[in-house]
């Protein structure tokens, strides 16, 4: 696949995810993985496609791979936390979301942290 074809496939996969069509995005991104699997942006897109198609263990692996490349990627930590949350691994999820919120104190991250804290509090009652 040419560089141009790789970029086009990547963009098409992003578009498909925006349209909430993760399984199609996974098919489109496959040739990109053959060429650029070690790029954090590719792994992040792959993780999002897995997340939206409820392939949570695969999503977790992709997000962890992003964090191997760049431990300071706050968005990867947030979506890893959300992935862990969907698996019921609330304490692990909280740790990741807390780190994300410290790295990027946006209202959305604070809201995610509040949500997971509420889930943990109700679970422990």
TrEMBL record:
InterPro entries: TPR-like_helical_dom_sf, TPR_rpt
Origin superkingdom: Bacteria
Keywords for this protein: TPR repeat
Coiled-coil regions listed in the entry: none
TPR repeats: 40-73
Pfam families (alphabetical): TPR_16, TPR_17
Protein name from the UniProt record: Tetratricopeptide repeat-containing protein
């Amino acid at each position: 696949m040419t560089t141009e074809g790789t970029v086009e496939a990547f963009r098409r996969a992003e578009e498909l995810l925006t349209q909430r069509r993760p399984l199609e995005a996974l098919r489109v991104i496959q040739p990109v993985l053959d060429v650029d699997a070690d790029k954090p942006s590719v792994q992040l897109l792959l993780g999002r496609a897995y997340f939206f198609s409820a392939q949570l263990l695969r999503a977790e692996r992709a997000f962890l791979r992003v964090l191997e490349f760049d431990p300071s990627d706050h968005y990867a930590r947030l979506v890893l936390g959300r992935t862990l949350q969907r698996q019921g691994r609330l304490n692990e999820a909280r740790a990741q979301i807390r780190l994300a919120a410290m790295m990027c104190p946006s209202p959305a991250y604070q809201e995610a942290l509040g949500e997971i804290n509420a889930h943990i509090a109700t679970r422990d009652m």
